[in-house]
Amino acid sequence: MKRIILLAASVAILSGCSDSEVGDVSLGVFTTKDIKIDALQDPIITGVTCHISSIEANLDLSDPSDSSIACRQTGEITAQMIAQIDTSASGEVVFKKSKSIFFKNMKVRRILDKDSQTIMYVSYSTKETSGSYKHSLSTVPLWGTAAYNTVTAP
Fold it and tell me: Is position 149 within any domain?
């Protein structure tokens, strides 16, 4: 009985359960891989919600680096929100999820394109020893929001 409880606890830890998970799609009966879909509300620009899908390989030590992201305006975006974010060319990480017990993470970074007045969200994987070229990009234009025309290009 103790072994079953220990095994169940180990699987739960390795599967990386998330409070933000809104979808779970099985890739088949004979595979331990699933597509997990998380919903992320930007912590500063709360009028933006991103849905991030990635592969979770249950019982594996590391998940694949593939991910996809789609972000949309789901509420108000104000000039005060934009004033609080990092407007550098590299932006800032707004979401991070472990994809391995070996220091592999999926991250979502927010970057402001001042010229087109658009917020970009890029999802990508990182490892301590090497990065991954696999990434996905989504954009949210400020057009039609209270923040439009309050962003000035350098």
Answer: no
